[in-house]
């Protein structure tokens, strides 16, 4: 059993590297330059400023070097500074919003369990009844709806 657990933990390493690599590539495939957010809205921004920002953020280096630096900072939980006007560390902004996010998720899970478990038990007891069919229809309709509704 210990060997199985160790094997699964060791398999996490390439999985996490793959996930970070895909995330990094998707971020870099986005159209435009990352520095555009800071220079496009400023009519006085010159190409020199944009080049200086590219050097400051390390965007002038090869992609594999950028990935290594990005991964190193990710491991250290250094997500950089916000592009917003306050220029605060991103980890501070995440920390501010994390308690509310966790509370909303916990309440959502609690509500789902409070509704779904009793419905499932009653549907199992009254199998093939009108209630069971209505519940099944309701559940499949809920699964079919887009999450943004």
Concise overview:
This protein has 6 helices and no strands.
Task: Give a quick set of tags describing it.
single chain; 149 residues; mainly alpha; 2 domains
Major sheet details: none
Distance between the termini: 44 Å
What best-fitting shape do the alpha-carbon axes yield? elongated
> In percent, how much strand structure appears in the residues?
under 5%
Total helix count? 6
Tally the beta strands. Answer: 0
Structure description:
The chain is mainly alpha-helical and 149 residues long. 71% of the residues lie in helices and 0% in strands. It is elongated, with a radius of gyration of 24 Å.
Task: Set out the fold topology.
Elements: H1 2-29, H2 36-39, H3 47-56, H4 63-75, H5 90-125, H6 130-144
């Amino acid at each position: 059993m210990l060997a199985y657990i160790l094997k699964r933990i060791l398999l996490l390493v390439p999985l996490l590297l793959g996930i970070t690599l895909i995330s990094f590539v998707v971020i870099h495939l986005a159209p435009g330059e990352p520095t555009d957010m800071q220079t496009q809205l400023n009519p006085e921004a010159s190409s020199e400023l944009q080049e200086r920002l590219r050097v400051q953020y390390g965007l002038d280096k090869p992609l594999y070097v950028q990935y290594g630096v990005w991964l190193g900072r990710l491991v250290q939980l250094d997500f950089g500074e916000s592009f917003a006007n306050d220029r605060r560390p991103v980890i501070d902004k995440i920390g501010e919003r994390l308690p509310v996010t966790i509370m909303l998720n916990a309440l959502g899970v609690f509500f789902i369990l409070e509704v779904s478990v009793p419905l499932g038990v009653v549907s199992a007891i009254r199998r093939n009844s009108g209630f069971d069919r209505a519940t099944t229809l309701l559940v499949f309709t809920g699964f079919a709806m887009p999450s943004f509704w």
